[in-house]
Amino acid sequence: MLERLVVPIVGAPMAGGASTPELAAAICEAGALGFLAAGYKPPAALAEDVAATRALTAAPFGVNVFAGAPSEAAPGAVEAFARSVAGYGVEPGAPRSDDDDFAAKVERLLDDPVAVVSFTFGCPSRALVERFHRAGSEVWVTVTDVGEAERAAAAGADALVAQGVEAGGHRGGFDDEAPGDYGVLALVQLLAAAVPRPLVATGGIATGRAIAAVLATGATAAQLGTAFMRCPEAGTAEVHREALRRPGRTALTRAFSGRTARGVVNRFMREHDAQAPHAYPAVHHVTAPIRAHARAGGDADLLNLWAGQAHDLARDVPAGQLVRELHADARAAAVALHDRLT
Questions:
Q1: Whole-model pTM above 0.85?
Q2: How far apart are CA 165 and CA 300, in angstroms?
Q3: How far from the centroid of its chain's Cα atoms is residue 334's Cα?
Q4: Please, what is the angle between helix 77-84 and helix 282-297, to 10°?
């Protein structure tokens, strides 16, 4: 799949609303690879998104699935956290654990295959990878260190999504208690030397020069997420778009979901990060009503403003235009580098 891409750019799957069929299709139509995010969606809604994307483009596209098992905190820890986040104008949600309908989504994608199925938060079994291969789908796995990459390669993954710590949203590693903390350039170098699999570099990539840099380092393609969040085709909430338009520091936090993720620093993160337990998705369900209330009311201080470290460089342009401009800038950077080295 990667070798057949006209443009070596992948649109990152962004669960929670930013990824839409319109965004995925626009990226595909520009010669890159668009992705849908299955995370948080019921299986029927995933099927609807796949059908809607096919209606917009005949090009291949991918779907990302959450593969991690729920993480359980010490007894009472989540309940104590829920009490601590009361008082924001809406009652916190009830904590509960689930696997995001993993099996049902997998069966949907096996029955109605797409070009690529990628996994985040964990590694699928070799048996499952082989089922996807028989269905005609490539399998990609998000990794944050060499150990995870070796496990994914052993399971038969066709490509590895090398997620640097600069990336916005959730860390995609297998063990959130000890996620890899490599920057994307260091990680791509390490993986290229250790694991014979195509690499998709992601994390803090927002310009053509950065795309050229990760390709020169050993990646086959660059995956961008935050760079597409201000595109009109994205489902990004307006309050989130406004936050991305302003310069702002990002940080890693478990405050919104119980799993480590990078977002723009705000009041909720400052007040609750230190006490948030490692309990995903229980904490996610606790804060869901607060986040929905903040989104509806335009309150950026209480919302999970996921963003990569280079979010200041995102722009309000159509996704297809952005892909074409990034590709042209990457080509120009590669030519300039060639001239510099020769």
A1: yes
A2: 23
A3: 26
A4: 10
Report how far residue 124's alpha carbon sits from residue 160's, in angstroms, rounded to the nearest whole number: 13
Per-residue buried b or exposed e for 77-89, using 16+ beta carbons within 10 Å of the residue's own CB: bbeebbeebeebe
Retrieve residue 242's tokens: 């406004």
User: Comparing C-alpha atoms, which of 31, 102, 106 is closest to residue 67?
Assistant: 102
pLDDT digits (tens, 9 = 90+) for 14-41: 999 999 999 999 999 999 999 999 999 9
pLDDT per position as a tens digit, 91-124: 999 999 999 999 999 999 999 999 999 999 999 9
| Residue whose pair of structure tokens reads 């069966």 in the numeric block | 107
The upper half-sphere exposure of residue 45, i.e. CA atoms within 13 Å in the direction of its Cβ, equals 14
CA distance 293 to 237: 12
Contacts of 66 (CB under 8 A, 6+ apart): 15, 38, 39, 99, 100, 102, 119, 120, 121, 122
What is the 3-class SS of the chain, one letter each residue? CHHHCCCCEEECCCCCCCCCHHHHHHHHHCCCECEEECCCCCHHHHHHHHHHHHHHCCCCCEEEEECCCCCCCCCCHHHHHHHHCCCCCCCCCCCCCCCCCHHHHHHHHHHCCCCEEEEECCCCCHHHHHHHHHHCCEEEEEECCHHHHHHHHHCCCCEEEEECCCCCEECCCCCCCCCCCCCHHHHHHHHHHHCCCCEEEECCCCCHHHHHHHHHHCCCEEEECHHHCCCCCCCCCHHHHHHHHCCCCEEEECCCCCCCEEEECCHHHHHHCCCCCCCCCHHHHHHHHHHHHHHHHCCCCCCCCECCCCHHHCCCCCHHHHHHHHHHHHHHHHHHHHHHHC
Half-sphere exposure of 326 (CA within 13 A, CB side): 33
Tell me how far apart the alpha carbons of residues 36 and 48 are, in angstroms, rounded to a whole number: 11
216 CB contacts (<8 Å, ≥6 apart)? 334, 337
Enumerate the β-bridge partners of residue 251: 263
The fold of 2-70+99-245+313-341 is TIM Barrel (3.20.20)
